[in-house]
């Protein structure tokens, strides 16, 4: 299972993830993070799931569907997802 490239060089807090833009591989803006989830049995210190969109119609992205995370936002790995 691939792991996302994190460009920040430090620990990222939930308050920093909340509101972060989600972009497709081509740079198209898809939505913003409004929640994240950890699955302790999988990996206790890694965000496993990100919830994007609005609260009326959210969608979930797994950590292995993410190419990179930087201050500019989160970029998806697979263009078929969008």
Question: What does the secondary structure layout of this molecule look like, with pairings?
Answer:
Elements: E1 5-6, H1 14-17, E2 21-23, E3 29-38, E4 47-52, E5 59-62, E6 66-70, E7 73-76
Parallel strand pairs: 1-6, 2-7
Antiparallel strand pairs: 2-3, 3-4, 4-5, 6-7
Keywords:
82 residues; mainly beta; SH3 type barrels; 7-stranded mixed β-sheet; 7 strands; globular
The CATH C-level name is Mainly Beta
Q: Remind me, CATH topology? A: SH3 type barrels
According to CATH, the homologous superfamily is: PRC-barrel domain
The gross shape turns out to be globular
- List low-confidence stretches: none
Number of helices: 1
Distance between the termini: 20 Å
Whole-number mean pLDDT:
83
Number of strands: 7
User: Structural class, from secondary structure content?
Assistant: mainly beta
**Strand order within the widest beta sheet:** 1-6-7-2-3-4-5
Can you walk me through this structure?
With 82 residues, the protein is mostly beta strands. It has a single domain (5-81), classed as PRC-barrel domain (SH3 type barrels, Roll), CATH 2.30.30. Helix content is 5%, strand content 41%. It is built from one helix and seven strands, in the order E-H-E-E-E-E-E-E. It has one helix at 14-17; strands at residues 5-6, 21-23, 29-38, 47-52, 59-62, 66-70, 73-76. It has a seven-stranded mixed sheet with strand order 1-6-7-2-3-4-5, with no helix packed on it. It is globular. The model has no long low-confidence stretch (mean pLDDT 83).
